[in-house]
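Internal ticket #5521
Category: modeling
Description: The requester needs a full-assembly model to guide mutagenesis choices. All entity lines are attached below as received. Residue total reported by intake: 227.
Assigned to: D.W.
Attached entities:
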Amino acid sequence: KNQVEQSPQSLIILEGKNCTLQCNYTVSPFSNLRWYKQDTGRGPVSLTIMTFSENTKSNGRYTATLDADTKQSSLHITASQLSDSASYICVVSAANAGKSTFGDGTTLTVKP
Amino acid sequence: GAGVSQSPRYKVAKRGQDVALRCDPISGHVSLFWYQQALGQGPEFLTYFQNEAQLDKSGLPSDRFFAERPEGSVSTLKIQRTQQEDSAVYLCASSTGTGGSYEQYFGPGTRLTVT
């Protein structure tokens, strides 16, 4: 069964600090991995997408990494801001599949 | 350009009532997905359409759940005889194609509370 596991479940950091969120998956055959940001009461918004051949992708202060051999990804947030407080969801898609597998997300709280 | 819209945003139903949730995708998007998201969890796949064809409904939890997209645009998710375990946020997403390589654009969701 395709699965996506995220850690930690929740995280609290001070404004300006960096943090790293983890994602492990068992989806096969692998097609791509996305990180989404979901603000409270809103739908998820895509931050990055990586395919098998990519091992890093940046979007502003967000940098995602992918190790397809160990089936692990991380999302690093630099110089956190209060607006970064949200749930970050890892989503993995299998090749030739219409649907994707979502993780349960990491809830990040940035405090002043 | 308008994004994905969903209505109503909030719905309270008494147990046993039927509900209908509407999704207006981005114009021209051929694929439309429905997800159920429980509090503190990620979205769980329910079903998806390519144009008007429902290609996968394997995530629908019971035969009380029914989705349609008759003209390949607006979609409705209907839940009959609602139960308390149906309480969740129902998310709709659309994309320009089918498959994980196409970005899904999500609506704000409908929060359903069954009392």
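Resolution: model delivered.
Comment from assignee: Chain B has a mean pLDDT of 94.
Ticket closed.
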